Amino acid sequence: MCIKREIPLGHFQARSQQLPALAPRALSTGLAPKEEPEASVPAAMLPRQLLARPAWLFRCPPGPRGACVPGAAGSWGRPVGPLARRGCCSAPGTPEVPLTRERYPVRRLPFSTVSEQDLAAFERIVPGGVVTDPEALQAPNVDWIRTLRGSSKVLLRPRTSEEVSHILRHCHERNLAVNPQGGNTGMVGGSIPVFDEIILSTARMNKVLSFHSVSGILVCQAGCVLEELSHYVEERDFIMPLDLGAKGSCHIGGNVATNAGGLRFLRYGSLHGTVLGLEVVLADGTILDCLTSLRKDNTGYDLKQLFIGSEGTLGVITAVSILCPPKPRAVNVAFLGCPGFAEVLQTFSTCKGMLGEILSAFEFMDAVCMQLVVRHLHLASPVQESPFYVLIETSGSNAGHDAEKLGSFLEHALGSGLVTDGTMATDQTKVKMLWALRERIAEALSREGYVYKYDLSLPVERLYDIVTDVRARLGPHAKHVVGYGHLGDGNLHLNVTAEAFSPSLLGALEPHVYEWTARQQGSVSAEHGVGFRKRDVLGYSKPPKALQLMQQLKALLDPKGILNPYKTLPSQA
Amino acid sequence: MCIKREIPLGHFQARSQQLPALAPRALSTGLAPKEEPEASVPAAMLPRQLLARPAWLFRCPPGPRGACVPGAAGSWGRPVGPLARRGCCSAPGTPEVPLTRERYPVRRLPFSTVSEQDLAAFERIVPGGVVTDPEALQAPNVDWIRTLRGSSKVLLRPRTSEEVSHILRHCHERNLAVNPQGGNTGMVGGSIPVFDEIILSTARMNKVLSFHSVSGILVCQAGCVLEELSHYVEERDFIMPLDLGAKGSCHIGGNVATNAGGLRFLRYGSLHGTVLGLEVVLADGTILDCLTSLRKDNTGYDLKQLFIGSEGTLGVITAVSILCPPKPRAVNVAFLGCPGFAEVLQTFSTCKGMLGEILSAFEFMDAVCMQLVVRHLHLASPVQESPFYVLIETSGSNAGHDAEKLGSFLEHALGSGLVTDGTMATDQTKVKMLWALRERIAEALSREGYVYKYDLSLPVERLYDIVTDVRARLGPHAKHVVGYGHLGDGNLHLNVTAEAFSPSLLGALEPHVYEWTARQQGSVSAEHGVGFRKRDVLGYSKPPKALQLMQQLKALLDPKGILNPYKTLPSQA
Ligand SMILES: Cc1cc2nc3c(=O)[nH]c(=O)nc-3n(C[C@H](O)[C@H](O)[C@H](O)COP(=O)(O)OP(=O)(O)OC[C@H]3O[C@@H](n4cnc5c(N)ncnc54)[C@H](O)[C@@H]3O)c2cc1C
Ligand SMILES: Cc1cc2nc3c(=O)[nH]c(=O)nc-3n(C[C@H](O)[C@H](O)[C@H](O)COP(=O)(O)OP(=O)(O)OC[C@H]3O[C@@H](n4cnc5c(N)ncnc54)[C@H](O)[C@@H]3O)c2cc1C
Question: Which residues form the FAD-binding PCMH-type domain (chains A, B) (predicted)?
Fold first, then answer.
């Protein structure tokens, strides 16, 4: 019951740029001018109430944009689930992913190897939860973007924290390395082994432990899938404070372990603020119970914070207590075309001012992203071809007020030429359709061949400069250089695609991209984390003393280094 | 320019409870019925727009409530600044605060004592910033609530992080204990020495380093006074994400060190979410630079989190980067009288639902709090005497929409008997007046003699039970037992006043209050922290393994234990 008003997907378009700049621009659907007599009335002459909710907000898009009417939902709203992913990536003809240890200069540390006795011990700890079948081990050894592959021979599927504790106690004693794994949707190779680390999967730890219907505090096991939690709390009139394209697969434990940002970060902030408590099993099997469900608790150091974003290197998260915001009564999504990046930026500051507290997402993508989403996933663009697209979401408690705010904003954005074309949705199916265009970019990119992925925090004014720079730098050596991301958070996803991995292309990209980012005081990993892939570039964003303190914390919490080795910490130390 | 509409303070009141329960209640000012013909029209018959902003919202309170008209501002809005406090507490006749080391069973650890050579070294590091005058050292040796007193002989006033670094390097080498001090408004005795620790004051580290007018990211030195920062960012159309009664004195560094909650927590969340970066000087003088100003940065462990709420025991915070929300265009405050605590709770859930995203504070106080504020500070109550009072603040981007939401809510609250009397303000002076009633409770209590302070997180349903319980338990042995606080966050301030400190009264309160709290899975320190006062009660809210990990972190970051000894960590370890 997220959406109260059932308004058909609305489409609108600015008049041609030839109108005299000072005359107030009229609103028009462009493609169906006859249907809207008010379109020819100058905006300034319309009464405010009318302007605030112009007629095009309530009209369906005509002809060529039929793909976004409800009937076409199948091609749009498909969640990115494990099946969706495997379907695309393990298709016949997809080349085998090379072994990480063969492609990268990395040496196995002197951990023990799993013996028959170990397997017997595991079988006693998690009866029926010890996977050694090579076939079944293929997928959990390969990362989501299919560029890294480990060679683990054992995957364990505990159901309880106590089982995790017993497993780790055994591994600690036996000096066996362990790779915690949630939904295996991580982007930096943190979730899969580099050599033969035991994969410790949270897939069967998927129970909701409690939900408080007044405060909205959810306590659950770490292996709950984000989308399932979303459904659970939405039925109770709350929402999860985070949302991401990988929601159909990723686990809440994985989200916390990576300090995932995602699509609601702009509104609900970081997991460092919304996670209220954690239960964590430490490397030696000790269960650390910080699973409080209190909004405030200043009884000493906030230990749980250590584990948020530690990517399985300091402990295994077994349960999460998280604060869920009330479900907004009205959600609106506007999908807009912008003529340039300067206009994207101006649209952002205008909309921050005019939408205020109801703004819940501000995402952007460039023209190439749209082309790839259309080509590979057969989604249809709901707006005219534009250099940039912006997705704006509002979430509020009063549909009328929200529509009025959004209406005024859109009117202003169209009238001032910031936006040239747009469409709006309020009912859930169509909202999902529009979101799919943005959420499924990563999936579309993965169909291109090899993807070089960069996830940068940059001053918002410079956000797109690096895309233009890299595009010029690589020229025809890359298939595509694209930019998209969470503009509202200053977070760019710069992606470069090529037929296959090539060391020379990599050499042209790195360290260039990192140096460029460091010059802007940016972050070389905004939200995806470090994992295996980024561990040697931390120095671009963190001073040596910080890296040293990270090492000291690792040594304190995991003295034998058995938890997710080769990840998150710089390799030279 | 925070307030756009200048509407006089409005007063309203529910009809007598005799009205038949099912008939929609009419709205009435009670005291001036003739002025409002619509008051006799049943609410259900009024058109929605009219209901949403009933006339009483815009009327001034009559006769006896004249104290809250603008002219009476002097007696209301006075900020709690250093002068206000000293004026009240060091008044002639105020008894000398006993030395902490004499009242409590605590032994000095084997730190060095400050020598002439040390003083000479400090003078070289901070020329003109070494205070040894006994007179000048009196105030910084006593805590805000005047129940603890240290005997430090040296206070240092550095201006830069480098100076702090040199001071700590010297102290570390010489094994001298150091007590970081901000505004000295802390409630748990963390900010003042127990013995002769050197006081390291941030008072001269009060520079804004940068402010980004698009993102709202403020970077400043740790000694900036919260209220001054508020003014600074408000002039630039932003607000600080936190606000507290102590704003006129407390430093942002102290706020971060205590992980202060305060009055905006409900809306903008914890400092763990809003603090983006910190610069910290570690015990050995190393400067740890985590002063990024990026909304997202997942390059490894989020080290700054360690220091948020660590109360000066792990490092000295020298600079803070913090995300400021845009200044709301409209702020409304409603001050309401409720007939019982059940109605307070119902008012809260109703207002969460009806005010949604614009709700920015929900505070409550009981009748005794109001009596004390009226008696000691000569503030006037703006509403009829009630068992409970509630202060609701909304902050939004559209004054009309907000007034409509608040109007509907108030109408419902009055109509259903949740609220019996109320007043509302939108202009800044009157908003401040209403806030003063809530913010200055701590000050009023401190005029009562000795105050036993408890700051508890509890399930909101049980929040007031402990007050009733303690009141019954103590009977005439206490002067007053009061309850107030941040109800929206489940945070109760339970305060007990007596003429003077008495071990037997303490014995009746402790461990009873802590045990009661632990039984509710609450926190024995919601926002005030641990300091000296609460260090031996942590076990009520944290398991042994967590306490052990705290000790390990302390040993890692401050192996000699020179930073704020006798604080935050349990004494027995
Ligand atoms: C289509 C798509 C869209 C995405 N969008 C976003 C986005 O918008 N924002 C964003 O931040 N990220 C995004 N991601 C990446 C993001 O990191 C992951 O989707 C998610 O947070 C990881 O969860 P997971 O359960 O899949 O963890 P995994 O991938 O299984 O693991 C990730 C890391 O966490 C560790 N880990 C997992 N579970 C635990 C545990 N219980 N205890 C300790 N360590 C654990 C692993 O060892 C690994 O280091 C996206 C990924 C995809 C595929
Ligand atoms: C009237 C009043 C109202 C209050 N209301 C609230 C409230 O609503 N919410 C709330 O949470 N608290 C409240 N408090 C208490 C609160 O803890 C403090 O007001 C504030 O956060 C402390 O800031 P300060 O600068 O005064 O720190 P101090 O009192 O000087 O120090 C507090 C602690 O932090 C340490 N510290 C200070 N500065 C630094 C630094 N730069 N680096 C490292 N450590 C440092 C000190 O060693 C000490 O342990 C209130 C206090 C008063 C007097």
Answer: 148-327
Residue B215 structure tokens: 């993102």
Task: From A427, A457, A485, give the residue that closes a domain.
Answer: A427
- Give the global pTM: 0.88
Q: Which residues of B298-316 are buried (b: 16+ CB within 10 A; e: fewer)?
A: bbbbbbbbbbbbbbbbbbb
What ipTM, to 2 d.p.?
0.88
Q: Is residue B548 part of a domain?
A: no
Residues A359 and A412 in one domain: yes
Beta carbon of A118 within 6 Å of any ligand 1 atom: no
A385 and A466 fall within a common domain? no
For the beta carbon of residue A21, count every other beta carbon within 10 angstroms: 8
Within a domain: residue B433? Answer: no
Look-up of token digits 């009327």: B59
Per-residue pLDDT of chain A (573 residues; tens, 9 = 90+): 222 222 334 677 764 433 232 222 222 222 222 333 332 223 222 223 323 333 333 222 333 322 222 222 222 333 333 333 333 334 445 668 999 999 999 999 999 999 999 999 999 999 999 999 999 999 999 999 899 999 999 999 999 999 999 999 999 999 999 999 999 999 999 999 999 999 999 999 999 999 998 889 999 999 999 999 999 999 999 999 999 999 999 999 999 999 999 999 999 999 999 999 999 999 999 999 999 999 999 999 999 999 999 999 999 999 999 999 999 999 999 999 999 999 999 999 999 999 999 999 999 999 999 999 999 999 999 999 999 999 999 999 999 999 999 999 999 999 999 999 999 999 899 999 999 999 999 999 999 999 999 999 999 999 999 999 999 999 999 999 999 999 989 999 999 999 999 999 999 999 999 999 999 999 999 999 999 999 999 999 999 999 999 999 999 999 999 999 999 999 875
In the reported structure, the alpha carbon of residue A185 is separated from the centroid of ligand 1 by a whole-number distance in angstroms of 5
Q: What is the DSSP letter of B447?
A: T
Domain containing A195 — which CATH number? 3.30.43.10
3-state helix, strand, coil in chain B (%, to 5): 40, 20, 45
What stretch of H or E contains B161?
helix B161-174
One domain for residues A309 and A217: yes
Residues with CB under 6 A from ligand 2: B 80, 144, 179-187, 190-191, 202, 222, 244-246, 250-251, 253-255, 257-258, 260-263, 311-312, 316-317, 442-443, 527-528, 531, 564, 567
Quick one: A408 and A347 in the same domain? yes
Give the DSSP letter string of B336-390. EEESSHHHHHHHHHHHHHHHGGGEEEEEEEEHHHHHHHHHHH----SS---SEEE
Residue A545 located in a structural domain: no
What SS3 state is found at B153?
coil
Same domain, A292 and A373: no
Residue in A with minimal Cα distance to B330: A356
Residues B293 and B346 occupy one common structural domain: no
Residues A387 and A458 in one domain: no
CATH of residue B358: 3.30.70.2190
| Tally of structural domains, chain B | 4
In the listed set B269, B301, B323, which residue is the last one of a domain according to the structure? B323
Instruction: Give a yes or no: residue B521 inside a domain.
Output: yes
Amino acid at B334: A
For B470, the domain range is 449-528
CATH number of the domain where residue B298 is located: 3.30.465.10
Q: How far apart are the first and last CA of chain B?
A: 53
Atom of ligand 1 nearest to the CA of A226: 25
Residues B171 and B217 in one domain: no
Nearest CA in chain B to A532: B300
CATH number of B524's domain: 3.30.70.2740
Instruction: Tally A–B CB contacts below 8 A.
Output: 253
Q: Tell which residue, B258, B352, B288, has the closest CA to residue B564.
A: B258
